[in-house]
Amino acid sequence: MIPCCACHRRVLEVTPVHANTLYNYAVLLDTHLQRKNEAESLYRRAIDMEARHAYALYNLAVLLEEKYANEGVFLPPGSSNSNHALTPDIIRQRKQEAGLFYQRAAEADPRDATTLADYGRYIFVRLENPTMAEPLLTAALKLEATCEVALYHLALLFFRERKSTHLDQAENLLRQVIGNNPQHANGML
Question: Could you say which residues of the chain have pLDDT below 50?
Fold first, then answer.
C-alpha cells in the first residue's frame, strides 16, 4: 500500500492484469466512494485491456454523461448556467465521446436491453436525434418488454415528436411504465 498524499488515506497500488479486477475496483470508486476521476481512469484501463468489456463501456458512458452534464455540456447554448470555457467543438466532442461509449457497450452486449435503452435515451435526450433513437428504444423493448427506460423514453419520443399521430401509443407505453412502477414520477407527469 502507498499513502495518498491528498487525503492521507492509504490506497492500493493498482497494477492488475485482469480487466474485471480493474472494472470492479472502478465500480467501488465510482458508486460507493464517489471518486469519479479515479473510477474513470480504471474504466478506461479495463477497456484498454478488453475492448469489448460491456460493463466497463456502459459504466464509463454513464460516468461521462454525468460528468459532462455537471460541466454544462448539455445545457442550451447561451444558457445562464452554461460553462463559458466550453467551446462548441469541446461540447460536440464530449457529447460524441459519451455517445460512442454507449454505442460500444450496446455492440459489445447486444442482448442487454438496459444498455440498448440507455443508448437510445442518450441519442434522444442528449443528442436530440429522435429518428436514430426510436429503433434503439424499440429494439430494447423487443429484448425486454418491461424495460422502463425504453418504455418511458419511447412514450416521450412519440408524444414530443409525433404529437397527435402517436398519442395513443405514447399513452399505452406510459400506462405500462406506471403499471410496472406506480412510483415512476415522470411517468405520472
Answer: 1-11
